[in-house]
Design goal:
Elements lengths: L23 E2 L3 H6 L3 E5 L2 E6 L3 H10 L2 E4 L4 E6 L3 H8 L12 E7 L5 E11 L2 E6 L4 H12 L5 E4 L4 E7 L3 H5 L15 E6 L8 E6 L8 E7 L3 H14 L3 E2 L2 H10 L35 H9 L4 E8 L10 E4 L2 E11 L6 E8 L8 E6 L2 E8 L9
Parallel strand pairs: 1-3, 4-14
Antiparallel strand pairs: 2-3, 4-10, 5-8, 5-9, 6-7, 7-8, 10-13, 11-12, 12-13, 15-18, 15-20, 16-17, 16-19, 17-18, 19-20
Helix pairs in contact: 2-7, 3-4
Length: about 400
Amino acid sequence: MAAPRGRDERSPVTTPATTPAPPASTPLADAHAALGASFTDFAGWQMPLRYASDLAEHHAVRRAAGIFDLSHMGEIRVSGPQAGAALDAALAGRPSAMAIGRAAYGLLVDHEGGIVDDLVTYRLGEQEFLVVANAANVEPVVVALADRARPFDAHVADETARWALVAVQGPASAAIVGPLVDADLTALGYYRCAPATLTTGPGAPGVEVLLARTGYTGEDGFEVFVPVDDAVAAWDALLAATREHGGVPAGLACRDTLRLEAGMPLYGHELTTATSPFAAGLGRVVKLDKDPGPVGLEALQRLAATPPARVLVGLRGTGRRAPRAGYPVVAGGSPVGEVTSGALSPTLGYPVAMAYVDAALSAPGTALAVDVRGTELPVEVVALPFYRRER
């Protein structure tokens, strides 16, 4: 008989089981608790899931604004004379081509072209970039960037512990953020960033922040990178202004339904190391003509030349039952794909989902079904996103 796990047959001493590390707390944890937040363990962090109602928070973001704590995200600074070249070699895009003050969505891929993470890169200066990674992937991103930057005169530093990140999203976001910062928001277009001073209260010294007009909800909005020591003051000021404009604090639950409506992929669902950028509809961010080639370039070139067997699509359902991640997509009773994310859309009032389906069945208007515990629910393939804000 095999020895029980954890026991050495040569010794009567049982090795104690490893105790999982408790989730990390953001600098704003006490503020969330005071607001009555319900918490969840997400990517090793204790994060606010909701404050009152998922539905109310979702609608507030669509109609006015929501304020989110995103301090679990990773911030990685890449600097030095060859910082741009190092990032070109590390990522599937071409960060060196960005102007100062611009941001770009991009991908870090492995040697097989699989997606290690999707991230946003901000160009802060001629020799300075900030890469923002998903919370669950900070360590592999830091390791990969450092390894790939080694042949260049560039330095990679994990600054996650130095920063808190607060996002204000929604149609009222400019009216909320504008009076609190010295930046000209009319000149700060989508996917741009600028240093700014944030006012936190009468007589209080201004807080130096990085202000970015990016987001993950489908709405206009801003992300404020603030030093950890100033996080609570910045949050309080932004929360007060958000409430003045009819907004609310918002948790991860509504953030998920917001991004799903906007057709934005979530790492671990739509994107994994087993996912090709081309199957995910992200071929636009991949540059295949770079020299020298980055890690994974040859694999990406092969993938680009071969139509993917399955591609990511949107699915629109009927009724009130929503497809969920992992449910099979079927046609004529046979599996033809799998749901990656799904929910009853609060904004649209019907079920929506993203799924990988056979490429031959990916055209909008195609009738399919989702197998929900033995019951086939009809769905229709639709173009992404499900929701697009009025501009």
